[in-house]
Task: structure prediction
Amino acid sequence: MIEKLYDWMLKQAKSKHAVHVLMLVSFIESSFFPLPPDPVLAIVVAKNRHRTLYYACMCTLASVLGGFLGYYIGYAFFELIGSKILVFYGQVDKFNEVVETLNKWAFWIICAKGLTPIPFKIVTIASGFAKIDLTTFAVASLITRSMRFLLLSFICKAFGEQFLSFIEKHKKLTMILILVFVAIGFLLVKLFV
Result:
C-alpha cells in the first residue's frame, strides 16, 4: 500500500493534473482530511523544480481556501460536522480551552499552529466556532501556510534530485516517515491543543 501511494504521487507529479491534485489535497486537509499536502508538494516540486514558486503558491492558496471551509464548518455546522471531526481527532475535551485561547490570541495561535504538524483543520474549525474575525483569520492563515509551503518547496528545489533518489531507494521508509509525521501531529494535538 505504501509503495502504491508513492507511485500514485509520483505519477501525479509528472501528469498535467499535478497542480489540481496538489490543490485538492491541500484544500481538503485544511478542513477535514487527515493527511497533509506536504508529501505531494515535495514530490511535485522535486519533479518540476522550474515551477517551485508556482506550486508553493497554489498549495498555499488551496490551503487557505480550505481553511475557510473549516472555518465555516465551525461557524455554521459545528454540531452537525465539526463536533464529529473533533471526536475523530480526540479533541472534544480540550475544545473549549482552544476556543478561549483563540479568543485572546487568534492571530498568533493561527500562525503558530499552521507551521507545526498539528492538523490545521483543528485550528480552522475552532476559529469558526469562536467566530474569529475573518480578516485576522485570512491574514494569519495566509502568512503561516505560505511560510510552511514556501520553505518546504525551496528545500525540495535545492535537494530535489537527492530527495527523489532517497525516496526511490527507500520508498517504504519514506512513507512510514510521512505517516509518523502525521501521527506526531495527532499526538501534538492531543497534548497541546
Notes: The chain has a mean pLDDT of 83. Residues 2-192 form one domain. The CA atoms of residues 46 and 160 lie 4 Å apart. The chain has one domain: 2-192.
